[in-house]
Amino acid sequence: MIYEFMRKHSTEFDVKKMAQVFEVSRAGYYKSIDRKESKTKRDNSALVVKIRDIHKKNRETYGSPRVHRQLKKDGIKCSRGRVARLMRSNKIRAKMGKKWKASDKRCKDLTRIAPNIVDQEFNAPAPNMKWVSDITYIWTEEGWLYAAAVMDLFSRKIVGLGMGDKIDTSLIKRALEQATCHRGPKPGLILHSDRGSQYTSDEYKVITELQGFRLSMSAKGYCYDNAAMESFFHTLKTELTYFHKYQTRQEAAASIFEYIEVFYNRQRMHSTLDYQSPEEFEKQYEVQCKYLQIG
Asked: How many Cβ atoms are within 10 Å of 198's Cβ, its own excluded?
């Protein structure tokens, strides 16, 4: 206790005088300081090993907030600031590619435009109530690979994925068919997209009407109306595709599928889900529903 007091006030009072007042030796004081610093150094070294392990297991995509939450899940107590300092001093960073700019796709025929039901409300109280969809492009040595995805806004899970060398209605049709097959949504589901020609086509309208879906579309040239999907594509590109030089479309498609199904849906923490993965979030919801039914 005396040595701790002396350490805290060493900038205010002379160490020699404090040692005389408390009747302790200066040598003993400095030894205690060395022991404390050595323990802190050992603890930090051990923590850095755990941080590196979490960082590597999560494909070097986690910054200090997600690393801290994973440490907390693993039962390791430490502050978020300490994690951030150790990551910074050891040059452990979340990999991030070049800035990605969302594309601006518009439909000139206003009679084909559905109203914006979602209106930037990117939350849902339960699964299969509100989905969003969009298309992005990934460059390969063979040319562009086009990818259409469908996301459930309840859990941010990617529930449908279609990829191919043509950007047409069949692309989004494959993604939507996969989503409906796996999830079995009921009529009344809200399906939001931008005003791209694929989403305003007659074929897409017929498919969604047969399912009983309610279409919703973004305002003209306003990417923020589909921000959840834009955010996903930003994550996909800055955490995966910008770090690969794909030789073929097939190689790119396999890489994207593995990232989504193995990592994004089942492992990657989402800040909007209280740092749970979409899979964990949905399982927690299922447990709560069962508990309420039993109660």
From this structure: 22
